[in-house]
Write a structure and sequence with these properties.
By secondary structure, the protein is mostly helical. Helices cover 74% and strands 0% of the residues. It has one domain. The chain is flat.
Amino acid sequence: MLSEYPVIRALLIKNPDRNAEPVTDFRKLYEPIRKRNKAIEIFKKKGEVDKVQKEQGKLPKNWVVLERAYRAIQTKERLIRNINDNPKETPAAKLALTNILLKQMINEAKHAVNLYYNKEVYTIKLDNE
């Protein structure tokens, strides 16, 4: 992994990316849950209660942790789009605000993965550390 090299790691920390490893890992974990929940909603609309219960039984016991994180990350992505679409903001301000939100997204993803596995997969570093 490139993030193992100190110079690359310093660049990644200084300029966070929405495709950072923790976010990508989170999305890989969440994708099957998203698909299953979508199927559950379709079965609910059709009134197929037995299929709803069957699909709900297939969800991992702590899927709600990932669902909450997904919603928080989606909110931050919407905020980033709104910031970048705002013609009144300077490019420097847009970059600063976007970097803050991206760091929050990365920490949210790390926290969700840690909770999902019930162990420290990722270390969460705060800006003041």
